[in-house]
Design goal:
With about 325 residues, this protein is an alpha/beta fold. It is built from ten helices and eleven strands. Strand 6, helix 7 and strand 7 form a beta-alpha-beta unit.
Amino acid sequence: MNSTNFRRRSGTSRGAARTGGRQAQDFGASRPASGFRAEAQAASPSPEHAVLPPEHVALPPEAEREETAVLPGLKPVLELLEREPERIDTVFLRKGQRSHDTERILDLCRTAGVRFALTDTQGLDRLCPSGGHQGVAARLFEAGFVDFSTLLEEAPDAPLPLILVLDQVQDPGNAGTLARTLYALGGAGMVIPRHNGAYLGAGARRAAAGALERLPVAKVTNISRALDEARDAGFSIYGAALGEESLNAFATPLHLPALLVLGNEDHGIRQQVAKRCHHLVHIPMLRAFDSLNVAQAGGILVSCFARNRLMKS
């Protein structure tokens, strides 16, 4: 089955890919991410994030900087949560606002696993410059997220049965570039965390050049538990990091279907995530040159899986 045919839970249509006639290798590049070493992405010991988000937070800076798809208004947000919660990235509510409808919104967010955050009126005004937010606004992922279990079920039918897992990758450009590369090489989909992950908004969509409208993306609360589920479903799990038994990605057989975990731009894969990987893999650097960001290194590793797939077919 072609990777464009994955089922999305959202009823919205997918946008056309904006390839502009570029050749397949022209994947673009986002800003360099300091601390990401292609040959040594160390596992970080930071703990897995809590299941529920903090209740009092400032509006994330990217929500103010980017051209963001936003749905303002109490009733519109409530209706979308009831009908298509998979289209919502984050719900923002004004601190101190309490009503039957706002309590219903919070209950629906918890039930559907949608991230929510409380902010101030000024933050909501910046997010919704045209007004009308009534103390509530939803930041959207227009293409819609898929269930992780559905992604696992359908991944083996993709041209390249590989799922990328972004363990707290922060930069939207990196996430978009990875999506573009993965989709071009036939990848099955991508997984991002509900907390401390890149927002797949305008910046990510520009870097993805249409791939995010076509590539299945799942959002999970706990990456460690998601890897456990994938392992139980028969997937091989690889992590991009250098350890005592890390494998040379250019020289080792890479088994599919698989998940490939890429870590945070500065800190790499978290320790409790890395220990769930069957194997760690690294890119052997032939010069003392630390210049690959997570999108570039991830693209190289994805191509290693694609090469193995082609050699076996």
